[in-house]
Amino acid sequence: MSETERPGRPVPGLVVRGVEIFPGLLDSAAQAGIMAEIAAVMSAAPPVQPETRFGRKMSVRMTSAGKYGWVSDRRGYRYETRHPSGVAWPPIPAPVLTLWHRVTGLARAPDCCLVNLYRDGAKMGLHQDRDEADFSWPILSVSLGDEARFRIGDVTRGGPTESLWLKSGDVLAMRGPARLVHHGIDRVRGGSSTMIEGGGRINLTLRVVD
Ligand code: MD6
Ligand code: FE
Prior knowledge:
Helix content: 10-25%
Shape: globular
Order of helices and strands: EEHEEEHEEEEEEEE
Largest sheet: 7 strands, antiparallel
Keywords: Dioxygenase, Iron, Metal-binding, Oxidoreductase
Domain Fe2OG dioxygenase: 109-210
Organism: Rhodovulum sulfidophilum
Strand content: 25-35%
Bound molecules: N-[(3-hydroxypyridin-2-yl)carbonyl]glycine, fe (iii) ion
Pfam families: 2OG-FeII_Oxy_2
Cofactor: Fe(2+)
CATH topology: Jelly Rolls
């Protein structure tokens, strides 16, 4: 992995169990700019409520931008080059790519921007992100809209966890020894933001897939 030190690369304001958090990295203009682009992504590739391999519907709605999108259905979890409807995923919006390069310092672009939409009561159980080919690449995550309690555990299952509230404009990086920690969203504080039309929270995760 070629990591170039770039001038102006932000320093994490907080590190929790190895996860780097950049509170308020995006000001409200930057958030609104990204949100407008993500709204266009969601009209081209509407978020769907995926099913797990076991036939349970997830409460989060998902879509993606980029070369690959992450999907889940009865056949399992995987990356696909098309939305379940058959349309190609829209390209990753330019301001999102700029943020990736600025925070990671990497020359390589991500292959996938997974868009997680949390409406009324949606949450996400503790999981690891391990459907990518090479865990030496980081994952970058952007929070928009309502505040959410993010829980962070360990690389191994079980054991102690810590949680923190993520607000709109917060950015987070999972890399190095923290790349494979368990994490999830306990709950979203409904109505805590007006950033998203129709309410709720959006989380973007940027990944190198192959
Ligand atoms: C969320 N985030 O914030 C869920 N995964 O809604 C994730 O699952 C996540 O924030 C990998 C890396 C960073 C993340
Ligand atoms: Fe994740």
